[in-house]
Design brief:
The protein has helices at residues 11-14, 19-22, 26-52, 58-63, 80-103, 105-130, 139-160, 168-177, 190-212, 217-240, 254-264, 309-320, 343-348, 357-368, and strands at residues 390-394, 397-401, 412-415, 421-425, 428-438, 440-444, 447-456, 459-472, 478-490, 499-501. The chain is α/β, with parallel strands linked by helices and 502 residues long. Strands 1, 2, 3, 4, 5, 6, 7, 8, 9 and 10 form a ten-stranded mixed beta sheet that branches. The protein starts with 10 loop residues before the first helix and ends with a strand. 20% of the residues are buried.
């Protein structure tokens, strides 16, 4: 507080005051001057005491901003669609990842890539809530989808690069199912796209269930947990995006929204602590073969310390050169004990050094208590009891079994839809006609079966079958042949780009 001190008026100064001012008592003026001086003395002391007592000053508390600890910027609350998608990831997707980790290996690795793909789609959905929809052919749209496309590609790559894996059916099921994340880019409604993708994933998923239902229940639970993701995602899109994906018409640019999300998701690295433990030591240098170590030096006399083969042979020849002294310590055999001179000794001598088959069996039986029983061979196919033919629709799956003779009309006909998968097993000398566009066909343990199809969404998988014939009238993406003895495939004009894997 800055103030100017006014000294008391002198006598000659008081004579210049006007008459009206002369009427003010001089004692009052003196008292006012004394009070002013007293206040000026008290102000510095008060400010000093307040600082010592820890009370903040006005300049510190009201006007000065601490730049080292700025107040956090309030985050924009996420919309309900993102909260529900987080619940899907933290629920069914995490459950599937945990079951994959129980199996381990490539299955766990691929499930981790699937989790990253769901996380990338979450970022894409946040962009749609903040930004206007860019042109599909623009670089901005491709930049927004780059993370999602790359993570989906990793899931597919793990399958393609490990076809010899014993868990290839697991990898193929997930690789076919990861396309469900492209529900927003389909011409159909999102829920319809998810249903079609589930049918494609069930082609290999149902094989896993059939193979492991009596061996290892954990693989069955793994497939069921994977199917649950599709069901939950269908409910999600029906709630938030029933017809198609929506963008924010009044939002910002898509790239600007993407950069904002990336900056918000990038945490600041902590400053290194001086008391932190030092890192591990660097690894030792790799060995080099450019300068190999020299061989061990020889003794001064030129003779190695260990005996070599040449020195041993020399000792042998030295012993031989001694003459009769070599055989002096040998025992001579009496002529009565020589078998070549006494035939009776040869007849009484038994050679027991060579074991016989009966001896080995007796020794095994004495060891185990009973003779080993050979394994029971399976009956040939012709001697097995024949089961009645079966053609039945269970849910979205057609089952065709045990057809061994031509039926009335010459063929077995099925009216399939795009959500139907077809399983054909233990059929012989039968022609099967698939009418309509089905999802996938699996033919297992059949002989001389003819298959005529219109079109398929996914693939035809032929396993352990002989003399197989197929004619495609429409389109077919993929044919997979495993342990097939003789196959003839006729493709139409629409299916000339079909890929065949053997």
């Amino acid at each position: 507080m800055n103030s100017h001190y006014n000294p008391p008026l002198s006598h000659w100064q008081r004579t210049l005051v006007t008459r009206s001012q002369m009427d003010i008592p001089l004692t009052i003026v003196d008292r006012l001057e004394a009070a002013t001086s007293r206040l000026e003395d008290m102000v510095p002391a008060m400010s000093e005491n307040s600082t010592l007592n820890g009370a903040p000053s006005i300049s510190d508390s009201a006007w000065q901003v601490d730049s080292t600890n700025p107040s956090p910027v309030p985050k924009t609350p996420l919309p309900a669609s993102i909260h529900d998608f987080d619940s899907l990831i933290n629920g069914d997707v995490k459950t599937f990842v945990n079951r994959s980790e129980e199996i381990g290996g490539l299955v766990a690795e691929q499930s981790a890539a699937l989790l990253r793909a769901f996380t990338a789609e979450r970022k894409f959905l946040i962009v749609t809530t903040k930004a206007k929809k860019p042109d599909i052919s623009s670089p901005a749209y491709m930049e927004v989808l780059k993370d999602l496309q790359s993570t989906m590609g990793v899931v597919e790559y793990i399958k393609e690069s490990n076809r010899a894996s014993p868990f290839f059916t697991h990898l193929a099921s997930v690789a076919d199912g990861v396309q469900v994340l492209a529900w927003f880019a389909s011409d159909k409604k999102p829920a319809d796209h998810i249903t079609e993708t589930l049918s494609a994933a069930q082609l290999f998923g149902n094989r896993i269930i059939r193979e492991y239902k009596d061996k290892d229940r954990s693989h069955v639970d793994w497939a069921q947990s994977f199917y649950q993701i599709f069901k939950s995602l269908t409910a999600y899109v029906q709630k938030h995006y029933p017809s198609s994906l929506t963008w924010n018409d009044k939002g910002m640019d898509a790239l600007e929204a993407l950069n904002e999300i990336n900056q918000a998701n990038t945490p600041a690295g902590p400053s290194p602590s001086p008391s932190a433990a030092p890192g591990p030591p660097p690894p030792p240098p790799l060995p080099t073969f450019d300068n190999p170590p020299p061989p061990p030096s020889m003794p001064s006399n030129g003779v190695p310390s260990t005996r070599s083969a040449s020195s041993d042979m020399g000792a042998v020849f030295d012993e031989i050169s001694r003459g009769e002294a070599v055989t002096s310590k040998l025992r001579k055999v009496d002529p009565s004990s020589q078998t070549h001179k006494n035939p009776s000794l040869r007849a009484n001598t038994a050679v027991s050094s060579i074991p016989t088959r009966s001896d080995s069996q007796n020794s095994m039986s004495s060891y185990s208590g009973k003779s080993p029983i050979p394994g029971k061979k399976p009956k040939p196919e012709s001697m097995r009891a024949k089961k009645p033919p079966r053609k039945e629709l269970e849910g979205n799956k057609w089952l065709i079994e045990n057809y061994s003779e031509p039926v009335e009309g010459g063929m077995v006909e099925i009216n399939a839809s795009i959500t139907h998968s077809i399983l054909i097993t233990r059929c012989n000398k039968t022609v099967i006609r698939i009418i309509g566009k089905a999802n996938a066909i699996s033919l297992d343990n059949c002989s001389q079966v003819g298959l005529v199809i219109d079109s398929l969404v996914s693939a035809v998988d032929v396993i352990k079958s002989s003399r197989f014939e197929m004619q495609v009238l429409g389109s077919l993406p993929t044919v997979m042949l495993d342990q097939v003895d003789g196959a003839q495939i006729i493709l139409g004009k629409e299916s000339l780009g079909t890929e065949v894997f053997t």
